[in-house]
Amino acid sequence: MGTFKSNKITNVPARQIHAGANVEVALYSGSASLSAGDIVQVTNIANGGRVVDVQIIANNLSASIGPTVSVGDGNDSGRFVATATVNATVVGRMNLVGGANYEYTADDTVDVLIAGPGGDPTAQPNIVAIITTVYDN
């Protein structure tokens, strides 16, 4: 089990970009396969952010079928997407009422948990995450 970071995760703390809707398109492109239990941090969420939509697209995560993934954060790995089988042609969407409009009370990251099966060791895995967050002020 490892933790990996998308192109949107940096050492800079999460911050509100502006009041209103903010859409982040994050890309994780790895050089090695992902296995069950691996976590990909896709974007930073600042204190006060409310996540209103999540979309996940993945490619090359499995040789035969797309693996199941969950989308959440450090406190609840399935806060937004309980379990979805995703691949290059199937999009995982927010599917939990409890995650819709969830407001963060501290800075955090939105994470993709690879629930299983493992990836294709010969393929370069790719995950695209589109996260829509609303900030009130």
If you had to describe this structure to a student in words, what would you say it looks like?
With 137 residues, the chain is mostly beta strands. The protein is 0% helix and 46% strand. The chain contains no helices and 10 strands. The chain has strands at residues 3-5, 20-29, 39-45, 50-59, 68-72, 81-85, 92-93, 102-103, 108-116, 126-135. The strands form 2 sheets. Strands 1-3-9-5-6 form a 5-stranded mixed β-sheet, with no helix packed on it. β5 and β6 form a beta hairpin. The chain is globular, with a radius of gyration of 14 Å.
In DSSP terms (H or I, runs of 4 or more residues), the helix count works out at 0
The proportion of residues forming helix, as a percent range, comes to: under 10%
N-to-C SSE string, H for helix and E for strand: EEEEEEEEEE
What global shape is seen? globular
Kindly state the number of beta strands: 10
Proportion in β-strands: over 45%
In order across it, which strands form the biggest sheet? 1-3-9-5-6
Q: Give the CA-CA distance, first to last residue.
A: 38 Å
Structural Rg: 14 Å
Could you describe the largest sheet, including whether it forms a barrel? 5 strands, mixed
Mean pLDDT over the full residue set: 80
Low-confidence parts lasting 5 or more residues at pLDDT below 50? none
